[in-house]
Each structure stands twice: as C-alpha cells, then as structure tokens.
Protein 1
Amino acid sequence: MNLMTERNLEKAVNDKMNAQPNAIKMQGKEVTVHYGDKQALFGVSLDVPEKMVTALIGPSGCGKSTFLRSLNRMNDTIEGCKIGGKITLDDEDIYNPKIDVVELRARVGMVFQKPNPFPKSIFENVAYGPRIHGLAKNRQQLDEIVEKSLRRASLFDEVKDRLHEAGTGLSGGQQQRLCIARAIAVSPEVILMDEPCSALDPIATAKVEELIDELRQNYTIVIVTHSMQQAARVSQRTAMFHLGNLVEVGDTEMMFTNPTEKRTQDYITGRFG
Amino acid sequence: MTDIALNPAAVSAKPTRRDIGLKRRYAAERRFKLYGITAIAIGIFFLCALLYSVLSNGYTAFWQTEVNLSINLDPKIIDPDNKRATDPNVLLTANYPVLARNALAEKLGVSSSDRAGLRELSKLFSEGVRGQLRELVVKNPSLIGTTQNVWVLTGADIDSAFKGQIDLGVDQSRRKVSDKQVEWMNKLKSEGVMAQRFNTGLFTYGASSRPETSGLGVALIGSLYMMLIVLFLSLPIGVAASIYLEEYAKKSRLTDIIEVNINNLAAVPSIVFGLLGLAVFINFFHMPRSASLVGGLVLTLMTLPTIIIATRAALRAVPPSIRAAALGIGASKTQMVFHHVLPLAAPGILTGTIIGLAHALGETAPLLLIGMVAFVANSPVTPLDPATALPVQIYMWANEAERAFVERTSGAIIVLLLFLAVMNITAIILRRRFERRW
C-alpha cells in the first residue's frame, strides 16, 4: 500500500470510475442554477447510472438538493429560479420546451425530506398517481397496483387491515414508506429521494434503507443524504458537492476508502461540514 | 448547630441575592391581567345591555293580540245586489269590516243604532280584517251565508293596551284607548275570546301603515334573494380570483397593485359601493330600482374583497409539502389545486364566505342608495321586483312613532341577530369539524 505511487492510485480510481456496468439513465452537463441573483450550482456535470443508487453528499447549502430537484424540474415551482446547462433523461433534454413536465415527473418520481402523505386514506394516497395518469382501467387493477406498490415499499403487511384509514395516522417511518409506495405506484424510471430518513428514528431509517436497497433492482435511485454512513450503506456511487460545485464522483467504496480530493476526505472524516 | 447559629460569619456568608426586579415584574403582569379583565368586562357589559334592551323591547313582538269572532258572512252585506255570479269585483270590494263589527257588537251587546258606540267598537279590531275575510270568501264563495269562527287581529292600540304597554292610569283623553274600549277588552279577555297568539304575520306581512299588519315578509324575501345572489356570484368569482392570484399568477408589479387594491376595497365604506351600484347598475344598465337583484350585485361587490382575502389566506395555509407531493407524482398544477389544495382550504374558504355573507346581510347603507328603502306591501316574486331588506326594515320601523312599531323594530332586530348568530355558529362549526392539523 505504501509502495503504491500516486499515479497508480489515480489509475485505480479511474478504472473503477470507468468500469460502469450500467447504462447512463440521467446525465447533467454543466448544470447551473440561479435563485434570483444567487447562484446555487456552478456547472455540475454528473452521470446517473441505471438501476443503481447514486448518493449526493456534501455540507448544507452545497447544492445537492438543488441538483436533485432540477432532475425532475421541481425547481420550476420556485419563483425566480433559472437553470442553465443540460439535463437528459435517456438522452432527451428534459428542459426542452417539447417535454411535458407532468410526464417527466411521472417518469422521475420524488420522495421528500419530511414524510408528506396526503391527508387522505392510505389507499387513496397510493391510488392517486395511477388514477390521474390513467394507469388502471378498473377498480380491480387499481387495487392490484396499490397492493403491489405497498408490498414493494414493504408496508403492505403493516397496513393491509386499515387501507381506508388516514395516511397521516401512521408512524413517521410508515408515512415515509407510504410516500415511497406512492412514488412507485406510477411506475417511475427514476426515484429521487431528498434526505428521506432525516425525520426518522434509527429503526425506521434501517427499514427505509433496506427498502432502497431492494428498489435498486427495478429503479434508478438518486438520494441526497447528510449521513455518511447512509451513503456508504445504500449507494453504489457517491457524488460529493461543495459550494455549488461537484467535487468528486466515484464508486462509493472508493470514495469512502480512497478519496482523491482532500475536501472529500475532510468531509468524510468529519473535519468540516 | 448552635455554633453555626451564633456565628455571625455564617450568617453573612449567605450570599445576598441580587435584586432582579421580580416584584416589579410580577406587579406588571398582574396589572396587565387586570387591564385585560377590565376590557373584557366592559365589552360583556355593553353586549348584555344591548341584548337586554333589544330582548325586553322586542320579545312581545312575537305575540299579537287577536280576538275570536263568530262572523256571519251575511250575503246582504257582502253582495247586496246579488251580482257576484257575474261581477267578480263584488267579492273583492265588499265591506268586510262591517261583518266583523256586527259580530263584535252582537257579542258585546252594542245596539246597531248606537253610532258612536259602533265607531269605537270598530277600533277594537284591525282594518286587516278586510283582507283576511276577503281571502276567506274569495277562496271559497260557498261560505257566504254561513257563520265562521275567525281569529281577527285587534287594533295596534288595543294590542299595546292588552300587553300592558299603555298606562291605563292616565285620563282617557290623554291615551289612545278609551275607557269603554278597555272595559270591552277586559270583558273579552275574561271570556277567553281575546288572547295573545303567535305572531305569524310578523314573518309574512309586507309594509303597512298599520303596525299590526306590517311584517318582515318582504324584507325576508328580499334578504334571501340578495344572499343567494351574493353567494352564487361572490363565492365562485372570489375563489377563482384567489386561486389565480395565489397559485398561477407570476409575482409582478401588476399583481402587487391588484393585491393592494383588494385590501383597500375591503376597507372602503359600504355607502360608496351603494353609490357605485346606483351609477352603474341603475343609471347605466337601467336595472330596476329597489330590486333585490341590484342589492345583491352591490353586496356582491362589497363581499368580494372579504372572500378573496379569506380564500387567499386559506390557500396559503395549505402546507407546501402537500403541493410538492402532488407535483412530485406528476399532477398538473390544476390537478394539484383542485385535488389537494382546494379541499384542504375549503373550511377556511367557507368560514370566510359565511362571515362575508353575514356582513352583507347586516348591511344597510348601500341599499338605501339603490332605493331598497321603499314601502313595499306585496311580496316580491322575482329578484327584479321591489323589495326591502331586514336591516333596512329595521331602519324604517325605527323611524315610526307608534308604540307598536317600537316593539316590531326590536323584534326585527332579534330576527336579524338570530340569522347572524346562526350563520356565525355555522362558520365556527364548519371550521372546527373540517380543520386539519399537519
């Protein structure tokens, strides 16, 4: 190890970075974001590989949530927000005026920091998406979608007897899994998660993390997290942001054991952030 | 133990506590509480004084003195020339009060030749008997020739005397009922044929110069029409405007100006809206005067700012996380608004609307300007017919001098306050029931 030259190390990192078995699902090229006069992202280029969990880490205010939210154009709802550069989904520019934002969000679902179920029944929470997108032809199909989504979010067994009770009556962890089920129900290709466990206790966090790991088989997941351990546990790739710039991106294992950038190392070891 | 107690050093060793003004602070708190309690007590006192004065004056208006007469519907008096089969006007113009007078004279033993006695007797019952008997006969002409038991309204002065509102101790020349009439009144009362009965006329009669036959009927219909117009115009317009301003409109100078103007409109004196209604609806669009349609339109203009402000506040109170959740699974903006935001804001919107309606129901000034302060005797059929409104009716009765109108004024205030209370309680119940906490 000590004998390893710096060049060798660099090569090893590059090898790992290049060895992407999965196709690129989403791609950001020189993405810039302005909130009014304030610039939040300074030209971020990041690839999101298919059927993998990509974790975005970095100190508060570093632009990771901003980048995440520009992946399904949730930033559009913020007044004064301007986006530059290019973001593609399956090589299609999602900021192209021809792209329908509603359709985009049906393909790129989102789970938020705080569980935010609709103040409706558990069933209605999950059924809402399929219903507005016309994914179920009849009540039976809708029932199936709801059950499947709840099962995938490993929530079905806990709520199967009270599907018609209020979703807001569940515990925090259950609510977050309900939100994940709600996102899954519209069969998205990508799921964006904005610190999904920050409002949950460790046990609920463990369940959600387990769930994320399972979902990886079917969905491309991008997760923003403040917890290094969480990034290490659930993600395959990690991107480190700092002050609106992408500092480093690579395989998670590599990032945590052998970061090339000093800032990454400092952040991971808790020297700043 | 004793050592310590006797040791002066130990005593002085106890640290002297800093004066941090605790006493002063608690005194200030007590003082403030006292101010608050005083303020509330003053408020409650005036509320009680108001309610007491209205209720004590007005409760008698809900009972009206009536006398039960066996009236012989004599064909010789109703139709002396026996032409009723050919001329329908005969039944309409017949001298019905004479029938009632004769029935009463028979009962009280007044001779038909005693002209002065009969004249005084006629004042015992109301002129309203004309319309009452006419309606009876016109509806069923076969009753002519029979004897019917009818409850007839007494005159307003007899009613006041019967309710003890006229001081019978003063000389009869200085009061409105004569000793003779009082004597008859007491006789009828002891026989049980003169009694107070529930005053349905208060809710059905229109305007009249005779207190006993004047009622809130026209005003109630007018107010009802206006409330319906206000509800069906201002709710959709107000909610649509609020949704657009709150959810769709991009923040710009224009929306800022609109916002300031809406807030200002809510504070514009209502009489100005009356002038606007007069100028626009009546003088420009030539809508009929005194019509509840115009009143409703004016009150709609007045209520709109209130509803818009309440609706926008209710929309703003819906947490952004719900909007984000809906957009995040691909709901369009309109779906987000109508499926999630609006249902959650509905209790707030309803509360605002009901309070706006209650405000409109009690509004008088703009209605005076568009001519709803008219003497309207017949019930309006459509909103285009002349009508009055509850508060305007109160205003008109308050200008009358007779004792019987005083009690009617208070009675009408009670009715209006009841409506307002019911509406406000409904608003509170709706808010309690549908309010959600996140």
Note: Strands of chain B lie at 63-72, 147-153, 194-198.
Protein 2
Amino acid sequence: MGETALKTNGVNFAKASSAALQDQQLRGNFRRAMDGLMSKRAVQFADTAEWNGVRALGTSVRLRALSKLPELLEKLEANCTRNGIQVHWASTTDEANAIVLSIMQRVNAKLVVKGKSMVSEEMHLNAFLEKHGIESLESDLGEYIVQLDEAMPSHIIMPAIHMNTKQIAHLFKQKIKEAEYTEDVAQLTDLARRVLRKKFATADVGISGVNMAVAETGTLCLVENEGNGRMSTTVPPVHIAVMGLEKVVEKLEDVPPVISLLTRSATAQPITTYVNMISSPRKEGEKDGPNEIHLVILDNGRSGIYADEELRNTLRCIRCGACMNHCPVYTKVGGHAYQAPYPGPIGSILMPQVEGLEKRGELPHACTMCNACVEICPVKIPIVEIMGRLRSEAVHPGDAVKGAGSHASKAEAMVWKGWSMTYASPLAYQFATALLAKLGNAAPTSLPLLKEWTNVRSKPRFATRTLHALAREKGIPDV
Amino acid sequence: MSESRNAILGKLRAGRDAHPLTPPESDFAVLRNKRWEGAERLERIKRMMEAVHTEFLETTEADWPADVQAFLTAQGTRNLLFGPATGAGARLSSEWTAGGPELVPYADRVETFKERLFDGIDAGITTTLGAIADTGSLIVWPTPEEPRLMSLVPHMHLALLRADALYDTFWQAMTENRWADGMPTNALLISGPSKTADIEQTLAYGVHGPKRLVVVIVR
C-alpha cells in the first residue's frame, strides 16, 4: 500500500471508497439524489423513438465535430477573432493558468466571479489565483457551497450533492457573517443571492466554462438555471471563457439537439432556465456586456487521446453526468472517493488518460462492467470498452496512454499465462480441474495470489466433481 | 502561445490523418417532425413555463401598456426599467399614467448605472422574438436599446410575447430565421425565473437572476 500511495501521489480510490462506504449519511444523501435523477430522466426520454432519433443526431453531431476537429478549431478561432473574441491556446493547465493570470494582471483584477466550469476545476484555477492574491469566487450555488466548505465538487452537475440541507445550514452559519441558522432552502438560497449579487456588481473579471463553441458563427453556448453564468459573463468588464478543445461543434444548427440531450440527461429538464449564446464583446453603442472576451482553448492531454482511434471516443462527452447518476459504483461511494475533478464512469476513463495510468490506474477498475452508463449515454460513448482497454494498457507497456504498463505485475502476467495455457490444452485443463476439485477447498485463504481475491471476497467453494465428470456420467461423450 | 496553437493543431491533424473518422449522417428529422397545431403551441408554452413558476398576463395590442401598469401597481412594484428607444418603450412612455410605478429608462452605460440597477430596480420589461413550444422558452435578443441586463438583474422580468410569434422547436426558430448568417452579441433562451436545486435537490426560485418571470401575451 505504501508503495502504491507513493506512486499515485496519495490518490487511492480503494481506500477512499472503503471510507465512503462506511459513511451512512453520505450514502443516504447519494442514494436519494441518484434515485430521483434516474427516475426523472426516464420520464424525459419516455418516447423511445424520439430518444433514439435525438440520440443518433446528437451522436452524429459530436462525431462530425471530431472528424474535423483541427479544421473546426481553426474556424472557431477565425470567427471568434472576427467577432472580437480573443482566442488563446494552452497545451497544459499550467499554461492555461498563466494565460488567465496575465489577463488578470493587465487589468489589475482583485476579484473574479466564476460561473460553473469543469475545465477550471481541472486547472485548479481557484487555488492558483488565490496564490497570486486574486479572490476567485464560485457563484453557482453548489460550487459556492463546496468552496465555502473548502472541498471539491462531488458531481459534475450538482457539485454539493453529497451534502444535505442541515449540513449546508451549519456551513452557512459558520462561514457567512450575516447568516442566521435556518434549514429553509428558500432562505438559504436568498442569503447566497444577497452575498453574491454584491460580488457580481463589483467583480473585475468573470470566468465561465463553455458547453459548446460553434465554429460556424464563433459563438459560445452556456446552459444554466441560476443566472450566475449570465451574471459572470455580462456584468464584469472582462469575460474569460475556458474550454476543453473537444467542445467545438460545426454548425449553429448542431446546438439544439446537443442541448436537448444535455439538459434532459443531466437534470431531467426539457431545457435549462437560460441558454446563453455569446458571440462578441460589447459593441459600439451597447450599454452593457464585457468590453473584452477571451477564449482559452485547453488541450491538457486531449490531443493525445484524440490520436487513438478507440480512446478518441472519450472526447464525444457533453458532460451531462448521467453516467454517474446511473453507476452502481458512483452511487455507493460518491464523487469524492475518486479524488478527481471528473468522477464516475466518465472520470474513470478520462482521468487516467489525462493524468496517466500510474496515478489513475485504479479508476478503470472502479467499474462492474454492468453497462448502465453505456445504455444511457446520450452520445453513445463505449465507456465500458474503453474501461477494459485502459485496464489492459495499465499492464502493457506502450505509447497510447501515459503511464501504460505502470501497473504490470510479473505474478499477474504468470497467472494469466498459466490460465491461457491450461484452457488451450484439454489435458492440462482436466488435470487442473481435477486437482482443484480434490484440493481446492483445502487451500487456505491466505495463500499468496489467492489472498488478493479473498481479501475482499469470500473464497469460492469448489464442487467435488468437475462438470466434465458429471457429463460423462450422463453419457455425454468428451469431444 | 502560438507555439502551443501550432503544436496542438499539428498533433490533432496527425492523429486524425492517421485514423480518419467517417461520421454518420446528421438526420434532423427528429426535430423537423416536432410540430404542434395552432392553439396547441401557446397552450404547451404556458403549461411548460407555468410548471417552472412562470406567470402569464393576457392582454391585447391596444391595452398592454395599461394592463402592465395595472398589474405592477397591484403587485406594489416601485419602478419598471424599460428601453425608451424601442417601439414598446415609446408606447410605455406615452401611455403610462401618473401615480403608477416609476418608469426608469435604461439610458446610460452600465458603468454609471450599476448601483441603481442592482439596488434600486424592482422590475424590467423587454420584448421577445417569440417563444418555442417544444421546451417552453422565450427567445430574447438584447440590443443597444434593450440591453442584456434588463432581463437579468431586476427581481421581476416582464417579457412581451406576441401570440403569433411562436415556433415549434429551437431548431426551427434558428434555421427559419437564418441565425447562422449573423448572430447578435448575445442571444438568449429564457424558460422561467432563475432557479436552483443545488441544496439537496430542493427547487428554489430566484437565486441570482429574476425571482419572477411574467410573460405578457399580446394578442
């Protein structure tokens, strides 16, 4: 364990998930939330023909975008630039942070308000800005709660889903000066409204993510319910949008089907309260809106993922979070056990590819391969196949994924080799099964290799007679 | 920085060219076939928007300024932010009667108006370009005469909707009106008052944007 923890920078899913499983409060919070989300989503897609149609369309939009990704990014850059949006490119999160900081320093920014952005979580942007003396305030209510709690989001759509009202009431009382203790959700929400409105009005810069960027028109699309995204992108004099490079779509007409899949899959809403399409900074004669808009396009390993024909499918993702809501692992252990900005099935395939298998090689195993995520993925990402591929990459040295081969074990390789030899030879197979039927039950659970299995599972009971022997008795001949 | 640009694009191009991808055809029939007849559209819009706490006020072309004033007076609203340079704004200024809520024009740049906008405005009124039956959404394109924050910062947003400007889907609205030929600074779909479910999935209205959305249907 000590060695593994060292190699993975303290990221240890197995340990964190065991702890989460003991936490009855946490499990209750997730169980309630996920059951609700699953049943509400099912209502949204009750019309199977419509679901199949819009899902096929949305998938084709994402695949078409990936098929022309370099050209579409160039087109997006050209059209944004023509519209007055300044485009920046970052290979790494360090570079993206540096770009954001240099804009901040140029305008002498002290306070930043942020709309919800997963890419900014990936960049650890808040911590970076604080280090440089800039207050970075999350304004999405869930993100605000998580930030007050000095924690990480536990879900990509509902960041504070791991907490219940009582816990949030205590947090507000403890952290917000003017707060009176209340468990009334409307009053808690109103308190956040009062605190954050002052911040929107005085912030120097607004930061947002991007749900989709349209190459054809140079338009940034954001969906949200609260209005904090519109506030962050309209009130401060400077707006910085950060996006992963896969978020581009070709045409404006590609937006409606993807938004429809996104909002219905994510929160079971036919549409969010606001769909905010931004195509330029404030123009001559306009009375509000930012004077500057910057778009930071982040790679952070995505171009590497794109190079592999199979792994590339990870980049179809529209970040709806439905895969986590339906995942038997995520719904039990919650988001924090993954210790990653993206938890759940999509996180389990994305994080190892972005940060490498050495650090994240455990995550593809955080999966029962039940296929629930694949069934509901609105853009049909073959998540389980990619999960299997990454398990294999983790134990076979290669170039496709960072850290490939880092989890290779001689003992495991020998076991598989032995297994395959045994199954390839009828004689060896008969010998092995006869041996296990005789001696299997006598083998102590503490045997090396067997121990790895029996640590967390009951030891299987071996039948005293093999299937072949039973079949022979019934008169079925060996082939 | 252009170094990163070229590196990223170069890597993407090499990756794609080594393994080109043929996407399936995009068949928009599923959106094209979503249709509602005549009165059904407005009924559906009302039903969907009311489900997320939107209020409706029915009126006519002749009476809407008076009806809006009567509504706001009954609500105890102190003032109404409006765009004086629009046709609707001209009607409001000429037909507004004394003693009602104060009409406040959005006349200056936000930099000089911010304090009043955030602290002293109860309601704002804007026009819309229509509404969408599929999702129950208003289409709002802010303009220099009707700036972006009018539909966001005041606690109540009143939106004028012409009863004949209705679409089946978002896709229909954008393709029929050729939005791709020229997008405005900001285009919005608004489908209710601001809301959140971030505290234990309990819906609460009015978190950052308007607490109330009142659609004024003008026949």
Note: Residues 65 and 92 of chain B are 6 Å apart (CA to CA).
